[in-house]
Amino acid sequence: MSQEQDALRRELLKQALSAASARERGEVLQKHGPILEDEVPYLASKATSLFGNLRRNAVRLLALSRAPSAKVVLRQLVTDASDVEVWAVALAEFLDDPSAKQLVLAQPKHIEEALHHSDPEIAGVGMRAGMLAGTPGLSEQLEKKLLLGSRDEKHEVLSALATSGAGTLEPKLRDLLRSPPAWLSDFTSVYAALTYSADPTMAEDFRASLKSPKDHQAIDFDNALTFTRSRQPWLRALLLAMLQSDSTAEQNRGFGVLEFWGPEYEPLLLQVCARWLERMPDDEQQRRKYLATEPAYFRYLSKRSGKDFSPFDKEGMQSFVKSRR
């Protein structure tokens, strides 16, 4: 990198640090490019500045960096920062880490402050931190936000519950699924939170919710079940039932989720592929139409076999399926 380029990047980094809004910071960062390893020490020094705007912009820039040293700085900020916004933005990078609870308990005083913060993003981190720490009265606070909060606050509550389960708010979330309010535009967090339920009748609610879904609801369902860490028996049974369904949409839904869940489901998925291959027409024109409606099975067989199957190599695919039984 030339001296001119270095100087330009330094100037842009200073502009990003002094930005008055997220939009302005983002526009400057687009010109600057990724935060590099050698820029981390400078940002780390600004993350402890006496000026609040500098501190907050610095930690947000560090959170965007892929440099390994940025993670080290962010972890230190979680344990040391007195600014709740700096603490929350830094902590957000570790909430799915095994060390999350330990980090939260390093400064539990910030939880309550974050919970009542005007920024829904900061409040959302406070909710997740409170769940990890077992903050007393948290369920009541979340229920109040879900009932009386702004649209953004409601979605932050749902996002927090998505990672650990609905808990005592399960009846409220089931009601949202049965009678979706106008403000509920993304169902992913609702489904994700409810996957942790121990109530097997939840499967009925999930299936019923997809009979007349709102815009993108079916996709939200797929995303929630694909990436949830829950493996409740009723959830697995629901997906297996979908896999055996007469409905093509349900078959594809169950297939797509179980494919992501791991190789232990391969025998069941290969059975579905075998049935698909048996029904494949011999006529070339009809086969083209058939392949267009079920591309997931073809991709799955190619991926699992490590072979570049031709879409019309029915015999080759059948031979592979038989070899894995």
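Second entry:
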Amino acid sequence: MTDNLENAPIRQNEPKLIVRQASHAKIWSVWATLEGTASEEIFEGVSEEEALNWIIIDGQAWLEERRRRRNT
């Protein structure tokens, strides 16, 4: 897989949401990465545009939910 975008409106110690394209198929994924931990695939789509839109629309809600769980 190759990294195509880093979307980084993030705070310190927050996951980065990265769009990657699979080299073996026409699949675009959004991965959450945090230094020192394994990457986690959180969305899979059929186009780069779909993956980017997921970050804009649902990715921020995913980050907020992750923050909420971590702070409870």
